[in-house]
Specification:
This protein is mainly alpha-helical. It has one domain (about 1-70). The protein has helices at about 1-10, 25-40, 60-70. This is POLR protein.
Length: about 70
Amino acid sequence: ILTARLTKACPLNPRQRGFIRAVGCSENLKLLQSIIRSAKKEHRPLGVVFVDIAKAFDTISHQYILDVLHEREV
């Protein structure tokens, strides 16, 4: 129930690769390699974000998460 509510209230970009069910990390690594190669080839700027999953929620206050969920009526 919670997953359904969160998905509806906070839709994910189809390009998001973190915090979702996936086959494994190899697919994500291949995708990242492809994106980097393409950006280099076309001389486009590229930004990549890596999140330390072990500490992902340590730096966000629980109150902030609750406030955002309340804002989105979850």
